[in-house]
């Protein structure tokens, strides 16, 4: 919908719906351009709603073809219908049936919301407000109904017909080439969980028996011919189902669970009841086409959508302000699953890297908002890292504070009490207050206050008294609409390490048995007794809270932690902190001595020799320097991306040169011999090998190019092939261009692999990249209609190539603006998402800042912006 002024929706204005819908019968006759939908709704007044209210149904681009009430056509004078809604001013104040016939055009639906076509197949996406694009409806999550769906289609065009719930009936329509299927979902659900699919699809499936003995048919549907690439997703689904039974006691509740992969999708996937629809990028995998990272993402997203069956579907959200209630909780659950299936510390580091890169940057930008926002203009713009990732951190902190056993009891109470309801964040917290007897009102600030708190810590050792005191202060920066912040309740998991590396058994009455101190005032301190020597504090172990930390430790002390801390996360963090200090100094022209650099590279050398092979996945993380965007975030003002790039390249060169012999040895030692397996240990070995290759190339271009070229030619899987190609892209010249061409020819019929090829070229850190990206926009495999293609080429350039997107001449900004405006005509959600690449504009140095501001202003003044884009551009400029 495009309007000049879009209204602000506020949490405080929430009102129960004046009507409820108990049952929905849908009859959908699929046709490429004129699909007919007949919706029969069993309505009744809501005793909790306004008694005299009109019936106002939402609609969006639907054509009304017929309307009757209890079987009689409603006279034209008694209702008002437009593409945006249908109002009956004087509806009956008793139960009644409304029958609505609409016509929609799935082929013309380029927004990918509602019913649309992808590679000829019919599919739907209804979250957040897509159901109103299928029929007029009370399209809000607190209106929950039981659905029966009849789907009819051409047998040739759509031999497979899928709906929510259980299959009831199917058959041919005599004398025609059409057939139908009827699906019934006994669980009341909001409209955003509705889905249907019709198309030509292949499948893999298996039977599953739940813990109480219910037999369930599992299936994954994909493009015919790609069935074997769905095996890993199916396996991940089965493991997710078992895990949710074991860890949360949650069982599946229908006869079938179906997953469908489609190639045109705005997000990752969608948890429609019993019929998850996925971006095929998160389903399809084979060693030849998918990287280790792809396998890990597939496992996580399959689990995420499955876990929504309880955290989202059985218990849904009262309104969209409560989005974190299902998303934050479900991300927490999928992270726990991946941690159990893989390496917990390694996974934790990966989570925190994403959190910092995406959420901390959002929280520091004009788009900052609370995990539970209090207002929005376009809800699709709030499917953010803050709602998802910071939302998950809140759940994790809650568990840290109350402990594992009470956390599980609280979750059980929440699920049992709220089952079948549309709940709020308050309902969630209430369950934990009840099982623990704790007041969680202070903790709930995490949902309400935006911004990343900064915790400053100072340690003081008193040798005579054998005590060690830690002084803490906390402050949360101002964010849009929130100039002043209250102190937060911050769990600090901590311990002390002796300067020689031994753990110190210490005690403080402020630290609980799990080693956690709760900082809930603006400043506080705690004292450890019986401390025999000056210790090194290890704070925020496991990243126990989503905060930034300032700690007065020397590099030498941090490097003690890298070597000796019992907490793997803090070992990694220590190396990162030392590297970050050097990178910031190098980027801003501050003094860096040779000894500073050799201090780090010598510590890494020791780490490489002693530890790297014991846990290669962890070692790969330790040996990866903070990204250019991380460094920019740390500098935070007057950022010069060129200087950052230079600094990082230089430090990488130094570390690589100092360790080149050992790195080369790793590269030979860790070569994959046997057949490919996506398990975490094998992936870890490949990760270390490829980090080694990258460091070698940073130090010695000729050796790097030779090894990368060899690896490229002999690689037995996509992980190794892509990693070597990625190293080659850092080395300008014929070898690079030759490898790029070879790669695109080899994978010409593999859109998901070509996405990697587009992305790799868009992230080349060189002057010529913008021209290259513009050229690739004309590549036959590129399409502005396909979100995966646009994100891989344009999204990667804008979000993962800080240096070239933020060119000093503003050409990167102008390019993105042009694509955003083009995409906005077709797919506003995609356009708005791309536009968030500007969110860091205020921290750039002046020339860039001015270019960015002018570009944003020009976008804002453009006529006919979608609500999605106008919301992002206006908030970015505020
Ligand atoms: N609920 C989906 C998920 O699990 C996200 C769907 C969001 N879609 C959208 N168009 N806003 O994460
Ligand atoms: Zn989700």
UniProtKB/TrEMBL annotation:
It catalyses: Release of an N-terminal amino acid, Xaa-|-Yaa- from a peptide, amide or arylamide. Xaa is preferably Ala, but may be most amino acids including Pro (slow action). When a terminal hydrophobic residue is followed by a prolyl residue, the two may be released as an intact Xaa-Pro dipeptide. InterPro entries: Aminopeptidase_N-like_N, Aminopeptidase_N-like_N_sf, PepN_Ig-like_sf, Peptidase_M1, Peptidase_M1_dom, Peptidase_M1_pepN, Peptidase_M1_pepN_C, Peptidase_M1_pepN_C_sf. Its EC number is 3.4.11.2. Residues 26-193 form the Aminopeptidase N-like N-terminal domain. One of its GO terms (molecular function) is aminopeptidase activity. Transmembrane segments: none annotated. It is an enzyme of class 3 (hydrolase). Residues 451-550 form the Peptidase M1 alanyl aminopeptidase Ig-like fold domain. The keyword Ribosomal protein does not apply. Gene3D superfamilies: 2.60.40.1840, 3.30.2010.30, Neutral Protease Domain 2, Peptidase M1, alanyl aminopeptidase, C-terminal domain, tricorn interacting facor f3 domain. Pfam families: DUF3458, DUF3458_C, Peptidase_M1, Peptidase_M1_N. Keywords: Aminopeptidase, Hydrolase, Metal-binding, Metalloprotease, Protease, Zinc. Residues 556-878 form the Peptidase M1 alanyl aminopeptidase C-terminal domain. Its cofactor is Zn(2+). Residues 232-445 form the Peptidase M1 membrane alanine aminopeptidase domain. Belongs to the peptidase M1 family. This is Aminopeptidase N. The lineage of its organism: Bacteria, Pseudomonadati, Pseudomonadota, Alphaproteobacteria, Hyphomicrobiales. The gene is pepN.
């Amino acid at each position: 919908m495009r309007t000049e002024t879009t209204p602000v929706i506020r949490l405080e204005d929430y009102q129960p719906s004046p009507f409820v819908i108990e049952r929905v019968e849908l009859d959908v006759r699929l046709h490429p351009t004129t699909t007919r939908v007949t919706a029969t709704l069993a309505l009744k007044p809501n005793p909790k709603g306004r008694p005299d209210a009109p019936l106002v149904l939402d609609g969006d681009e639907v054509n009304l073809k017929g309307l009757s009430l209890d079987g009689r056509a409603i006279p034209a004078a008694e209702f008002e219908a437009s593409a945006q809604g249908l109002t009956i001013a004087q509806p009956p104040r008793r139960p009644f049936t409304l029958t609505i016939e609409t016509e929609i055009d799935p082929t013309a639906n380029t927004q990918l919301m509602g019913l649309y076509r992808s590679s000829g197949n019919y599919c739907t996406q209804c979250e957040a407000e897509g159901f109103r694009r299928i029929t007029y409806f009370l399209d809000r999550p607190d209106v929950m109904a039981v659905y029966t769906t009849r789907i009819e289609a051409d047998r040739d065009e759509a031999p497979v017909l899928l709906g929510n719930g259980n299959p009831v009936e199917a058959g041919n329509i005599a004398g025609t080439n059409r057939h139908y299927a009827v699906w019934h979902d006994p669980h009341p659900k909001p409209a955003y969980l509705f889905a249907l699919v019709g198309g030509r699809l292949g499948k893999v499936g298996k039977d599953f028996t739940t813990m109480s003995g219910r037999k369930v048919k599992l299936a994954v549907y994909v493009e015919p011919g790609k069935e074997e690439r769905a095996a890993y997703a199916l396996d991940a689904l089965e493991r997710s189902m078992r895990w949710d039974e074991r860890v949360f006691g949650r069982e599946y509740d229908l006869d079938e669970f179906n997953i469908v992969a489609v190639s045109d999708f705005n997000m990752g996937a969608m948890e429609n009841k019993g019929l998850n629809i996925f971006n095929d990028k998160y389903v399809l995998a084979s060693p030849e086409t998918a990287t280790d990272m792809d396998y890990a993402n597939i496992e996580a997203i399959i689990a995420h959508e499955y876990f929504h069956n309880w955290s989202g579907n059985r218990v849904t959200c009262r309104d969209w302000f409560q989005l974190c209630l299902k998303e934050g909780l479900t991300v927490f659950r999928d992270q726990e699953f991946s941690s159990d299936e893989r390496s917990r510390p390694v996974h934790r580091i990966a989570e925190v890297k994403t959190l910092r890169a995406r959420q901390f940057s959002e929280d520091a930008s004009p788009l900052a908002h609370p995990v539970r926002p209090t207002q929005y203009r376009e809800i699709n713009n709030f499917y953010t890292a803050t709602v998802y990732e910071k939302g998950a951190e809140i759940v994790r902190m809650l568990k840290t504070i109350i402990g594992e056993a009470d956390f599980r009891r609280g979750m059980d109470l929440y699920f049992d009490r709220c089952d079948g309801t549309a709940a709020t964040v308050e309902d969630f917290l209430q369950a934990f207050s009840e099982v623990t007897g704790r007041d969680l009102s202070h903790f709930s600030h995490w949902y309400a206050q935006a911004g990343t708190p900064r915790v400053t810590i100072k340690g003081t050792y008193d040798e005579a008294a054998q005590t060690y005191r830690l002084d803490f202060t906390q402050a949360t920066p101002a964010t849009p609409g929130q100039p002043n912040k209250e102190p937060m309740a911050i769990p600090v998991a901590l311990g002390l390490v002796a300067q020689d590396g031994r753990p110190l058994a210490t005690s403080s009455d402020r630290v609980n048995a799990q080693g956690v101190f709760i900082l809930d005032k603006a400043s506080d301190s705690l004292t450890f007794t019986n401390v025999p020597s000056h210790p090194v504090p290890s704070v925020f172990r496991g990243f126990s809270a989503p905060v930034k930390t300032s700690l007065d430790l020397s590099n030498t002390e941090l490097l003690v932690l890298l070597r000796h801390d019992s907490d793997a996360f803090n070992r990694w963090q220590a190396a990162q902190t030392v590297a970050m200090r050097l990178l910031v100094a190098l980027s801003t022209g501050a003094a860096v001595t040779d000894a500073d650099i050799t201090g780090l590279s010598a510590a890494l050398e020791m780490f490489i020799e002693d530890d790297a092979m014991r846990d290669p996945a962890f070692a790969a993380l330790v040996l990866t320097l903070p990204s250019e965007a991380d460094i920019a975030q740390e500098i935070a003002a007057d950022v010069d991306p060129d200087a950052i790039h230079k600094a990082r390249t230089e430090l990488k060169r130094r570390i690589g040169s100092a360790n080149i012999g050992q790195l080369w040895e790793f590269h030979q030692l860790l070569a994959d011999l046997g057949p490919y397996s996506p398990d975490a240990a094998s992936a870890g070995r490949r990760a270390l090998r490829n980090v080694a290759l990258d460091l070698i190339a940073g130090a010695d271009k000729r050796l790097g190019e030779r090894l990368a070229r060899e690896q490229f030619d002999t690689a037995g899987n996509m992980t190794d092939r892509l990693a070597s190609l990625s190293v080659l892209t850092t080395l300008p010249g014929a070898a690079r261009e030759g490898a790029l061409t070879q790669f695109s020819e080899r994978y010409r019929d593999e859109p998901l692999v070509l996405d990697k090829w587009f992305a790799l070229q868009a992230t080349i850190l060189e002057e010529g990249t913008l021209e290259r990206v513009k050229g690739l926009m004309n590549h036959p495999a590129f399409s502005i209609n396909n979100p995966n293609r646009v994100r891989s080429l344009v999204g990667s350039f804008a979000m993962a190539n800080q240096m070239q997107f933020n060119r000093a001449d503003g050409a990167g900004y102008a390019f993105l603006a042009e694509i955003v405006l083009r995409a906005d005509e077709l797919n506003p959600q995609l356009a708005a998402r791309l536009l968030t690449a500007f969110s860091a504009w205020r921290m750039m140095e002046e020339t860039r800042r001015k270019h960015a501001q002018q570009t944003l202003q020009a976008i804002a003044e453009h006529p006919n912006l979608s609500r999605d884009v106008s919301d992002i551009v206006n908030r970015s400029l505020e």
